[in-house]
């Protein structure tokens, strides 16, 4: 079942990236707009983003058209599917549920960081990756751990007001993870 559910989740990834690229075009500041457009095109081209690239655009996700409450409804629906939330609700409920789930993952991340990844069994490690968007069925334990460490560094660096970046990172960090880093 995880492979089937991951396939359903991955079907929404292109819509999330299109929505992000479209929202980037409406940003007023040229430099952040270029950074975000470059990030989107890199991921669409098969590359994996670096943590520094995500942190460089973090401010865009807390007060611009990229904050969860201001995203287009189709974009919110696609992000909801990434988290396995039903997209068939009114926009206000979609946004509320999406924010609630992303903040819950953020709280779990802080607890996981406090516990330490070394405490997790291989099954727990894979489940933690899966919850955050990565299908780890074809990855080794070391790859799962490396991905989760990167995720935790990002998640624990972000503020609650930057939850939109965390939701988008489920796609940005996992889409090309099985491919070599560029």
Automatic annotation (TrEMBL):
A Gene Ontology cellular-component term: mitochondrial inner membrane
Pfam families from the UniProt entry: LETM1_RBD
Domain Letm1 RBD: 4-182
InterPro entries reported for this sequence: LETM1-like_RBD (IPR033122), LETM1/MDM38-like (IPR044202)
Chief location of this protein within or outside the cell: mitochondrion
Topology in membrane: Single-pass membrane protein
Domain of life of the source: Eukaryota
MF GO annotations: ribosome binding
Subcellular location: Mitochondrion inner membrane
GO BP field: intracellular monoatomic cation homeostasis
Keywords carried by this UniProt record: Membrane, Mitochondrion, Mitochondrion inner membrane, Transmembrane, Transmembrane helix
Keyword Phosphoprotein: no
Keyword RNA-binding among UniProt keywords: no
Protein name: LTMD1 protein
Organism: Tachuris rubrigastra
Gene expressing this chain: Letmd1
């Amino acid at each position: 079942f995880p492979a089937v559910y991951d396939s359903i989740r991955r079907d929404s990834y292109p819509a999330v990236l299109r929505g992000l690229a479209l929202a980037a075009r409406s940003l007023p500041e040229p430099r952040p707009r270029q950074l975000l457009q470059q990030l989107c095109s890199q991921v669409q081209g098969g590359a994996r983003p670096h943590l520094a690239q995500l942190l460089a655009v973090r401010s865009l996700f807390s007060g611009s058209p990229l904050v969860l409450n201001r995203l287009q409804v189709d974009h919110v629906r696609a992000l909801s599917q990434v988290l396995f939330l039903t997209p068939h609700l009114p926009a206000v409920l979609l946004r509320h549920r999406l924010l609630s789930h992303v903040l819950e993952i953020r709280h779990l991340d802080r607890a996981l960081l406090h516990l330490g990844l070394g405490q997790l069994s291989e099954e727990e490690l894979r489940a933690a990756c899966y919850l955050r968007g990565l299908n780890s069925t074809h990855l080794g334990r070391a790859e799962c751990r490396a991905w989760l460490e990167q995720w935790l560094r990002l998640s624990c660096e972000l503020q609650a007001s930057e939850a939109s970046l965390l939701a988008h990172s489920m796609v940005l960090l996992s889409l090309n993870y099985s491919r070599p880093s560029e």
